[in-house]
Amino acid sequence: MKIIERSGARIPAIGLGTFRLDDETSPGIVRKAIECGYRHIDTARMYGNEKGVGQGIRDSGIDRDELFVTTKIWWSDIGRSSLVPTAVKALVDLQMEQVDLLLIHWPNPDIPLEESIAALNEARTKGLTKHIGVANFTSTMMDEAQKMSEAPLVCNQVEYHPTLSQDAILAACKRNDMALVAYSPIGQGGDLLQNPEIVRIAEAHSKTPAQVVLRWEIEQDGVAAIPRTSNPDRLAENIDVFDFELTDDDRNLMERMTRLRKRLVNPGFAPKWDRA
Hints:
The chain is of the alpha/beta class. It has one domain (10-189, 217-239): NADP-dependent oxidoreductase domain (TIM Barrel), CATH 3.20.20.100. Helix content is 38%, strand content 17%. Strand 4, helix 2 and strand 5 form a beta-alpha-beta unit. The mean pLDDT is 97.
């Protein structure tokens, strides 16, 4: 497994996203993922599945130190008085003493960024998490947050795939020693995986379109991906991306595709996104 090392954190390049998995379905998926070799598990308070994710980890029998577990605090709870208590609730549901990475899930324009970052640092100081970071921040917000933070912010988790460029975020990650953790890395609904050019590349490498897209992401410096699936058979496929390399032509084609800028996740409370 490739490891992304940023600001003291060691993040496995392929993780399991658990969005839309509930407490009933997540234990089996998480346990199976760990059996397939996943060592990076991503959840969030908003997903409502931290109890199930924690159960799946315990059911796997794996030593806790072998896993990199992330959870995220929803944008309504990132104020000074609410972030730490919410993180404590997350640990109670996960039945863990500490997560490896705690993220602000979305910025909140009604809560000063400095207040949110201070609260995030407090969670780390209290030992609730080893590392801290952000999600869905623009490049400018990343620069500001890193300057405000006592401890280093180790990643920005954002939507990223071959039909959405994130050049500004990637540049901000580089200058701030942060990883980019890609959610929706293979798109949603299958449209991306049916693209004829990606299908052609996959056939040339005797791989699936999903494997080609994930390979394109993790070949980039400092990029990890957390594909989500509710299909146990897809778990092994999504992590089986370390035994081949794309050609320069493959990479250039997918890089050109990012100019389509097809954003899939854009709620009304989202920040004003970077234009590149």
